[in-house]
TrEMBL record:
InterPro entries to which the protein is assigned, alphabetical: Homeodomain-like_sf (IPR009057), HTH-type_Tx_Regulator (IPR050624), HTH_TetR (IPR001647), TetR_C_Firmicutes (IPR039532)
Top-rank taxon: Bacteria
Species the sequence originates in: Paenibacillus endophyticus
One Gene Ontology molecular-function label: DNA binding
Keyword annotations: DNA-binding
Residue ranges occupied by any HTH tetR-type domain in the UniProt entry: 13-73
DNA-binding region: 36-55
The protein's name: AcrR family transcriptional regulator
Length: 181
């Protein structure tokens, strides 16, 4: 018999999805700071009790959205190398292409967050998460270069391009970034 103790109830999943979608929809019209929990639950067609059984605040709800985005970002970063036994530093550009694809898939959310008060938090979480994964996953040659500095340099370049792309309203297609490898 399967263990159900770690499985989340489908009703909880449905309510969390509805609350996330409601917040994002309201953020298309209003600043995050002016949004109330009442507005979120009314649009999601739930009550405040449901909201508070899932989140302690609207900030926790937005943080959940950002954390899900970061998890997908990490998965996108690792995707080109998940079947490779050794991940070498000179292969980093291929991961950046997958990051662009991730951003493209989530363009609406990134655009909303770009225009919100949460942009610095998003940038920080993206950077810290990718730095941790890169330093954990990458095998660096013994070439005298400080690996942490090299990783920071590359991540700032990739994320700088990504945020420029978002700020420009996705002026270029994701394919344009394939040629930057």
């Amino acid at each position: 018999m399967p263990d159900k103790s770690n499985k989340i109830d489908r009703r909880i999943i449905r309510s969390r999805i509805a609350l996330r979608e409601a917040l994002l929809e309201i953020m298309t019209k209003k600043s995050f700071n002016t949004i109330s929990i009442t507005e979120i639950v009314e649009l999601a067609n739930y009550n405040r009790g449901t909201f508070y059984s899932n989140y302690e605040s609207k900030e926790a709800l937005l943080d959940d959205i950002v954390n899900n985005l970061i998890q997908d970002l990490i998965q996108s970063f690792r995707a080109p190398y998940e079947k490779v036994e050794i991940f070498r530093v000179n292969e980093i550009p291929a991961a950046s292409v997958m990051i662009v694809e991730h951003v493209s898939r989530n363009a609406a959310v990134y655009s909303l967050l770009l225009n919100s008060d949460w942009l610095p938090e998003l940038q920080k979480k993206m950077f810290v998460s990718l730095k941790h994964i890169a330093l954990e996953d990458i095998i660096f040659p013994d070439d005298g270069i400080d690996h942490e500095l090299f990783t920071i340099y590359n991540l700032h370049a990739v994320l700088g391009l990504v945020f420029h792309w978002i700020e420009s309203g996705y002026k270029h297609t994701p394919d344009c970034y394939m040629h930057l490898r």
